[in-house]
Amino acid sequence: MSHQKYRVCIDACQKCANACDHCSTACLQEDNVAMMERCIRLDIDCAALCRFAAAAMARSSEHVSDICQLCAELCEACAAECATHEHDHCVECADACRSCAQACQAMVA
Amino acid sequence: MSHQKYRVCIDACQKCANACDHCSTACLQEDNVAMMERCIRLDIDCAALCRFAAAAMARSSEHVSDICQLCAELCEACAAECATHEHDHCVECADACRSCAQACQAMVA
Amino acid sequence: MSHQKYRVCIDACQKCANACDHCSTACLQEDNVAMMERCIRLDIDCAALCRFAAAAMARSSEHVSDICQLCAELCEACAAECATHEHDHCVECADACRSCAQACQAMVA
Amino acid sequence: MSHQKYRVCIDACQKCANACDHCSTACLQEDNVAMMERCIRLDIDCAALCRFAAAAMARSSEHVSDICQLCAELCEACAAECATHEHDHCVECADACRSCAQACQAMVA
């Protein structure tokens, strides 16, 4: 099936979306929640776009390349923000975002 | 992390969403596409709801149970329709939908 | 067009989704953000489900009734939470959620 | 409220999403459904991205400009395909896609 060539990137997008969605909730429960505003907002954007990108790849959309390019940008922004925090969920989210950005860039290339 | 209890169901939802999204595109390329109308429409509904359910679980939403109950219903309807077709993508989609319905029902119970 | 019978409910869902999405961001910028945790989380759930419901109605999905029933439940929960806060965005969001719940219930009936 | 500056573009995205979602279903019911494959696939992509863009604007996302740029591209592609068909739903969808592309480009500028 043609969508199998997207398998690695779909998995990376879904792992990243889950990490971002979890991070957004966990940030809201931190003592310093006011400091987590940008992290939460980027988490929400990134999670939604990663799920859209996974769906587009599963449908073998003709726009996969442009979608993955935007997804890589949002993942990098979210990774950079998460990396400034020491909460476990932020560290894990930063890792998932970086991996997803790389997988998306490989898809674009 | 609290969202880990949802791991099996999140994975089932994502596998199902990918199978449905792929099936919708593959159905559109079949010779008998007119016969695939309902399959394609249920694929689209089911894929989108499965991705929403996965996101809700990753966020540890307080509405997880109600969402998973609706997801199980749509998965069962999509599985029943896919099972009436012999295309490989329909067979695989029916399997993924049944597995997801079971995982969602286990979450509700 | 058959989707025209859904026009009022689609509009209510989209207005509610926009109010919820806006409220989630505005809550994150309030001084008492820790008190807004549940409001933000319900906003996120409600916005995403309202957009899914609008899409399902625009596609004349056979599952419109079940989807609108769940949407009404989430809207009512979000309205009840928003109504406990005095921020303008919460008051406006509570109104939009109540209107959407009514439109969804009318669709189910 | 800061999201009010996005009002025109949010409305255009939502109108476009509804037109695309409706067109995808209506195409599946046409006699010449095999000829509508690309139209249906672009409708699905465009509808989902327009709803994501509307949500991002309602949240005043910092990535609104990049998201609207991609949205404009998909809208233009969908408008061009729809314009090659004479079905009422395709003509209406092409109009909604063109209007949305213009609104998104104005947002980017």
From TrEMBL, chains A, B, C, D:
Pfam families: Csp. CDD domains: DUF326 (cd08026). InterPro entries: Csp_YhjQ (IPR005560), YHJQ-like (IPR044543). PANTHER family: CYTOPLASMIC PROTEIN, CYTOPLASMIC PROTEIN-RELATED. This is Four-helix bundle copper-binding protein. It comes from Rheinheimera aquimaris.
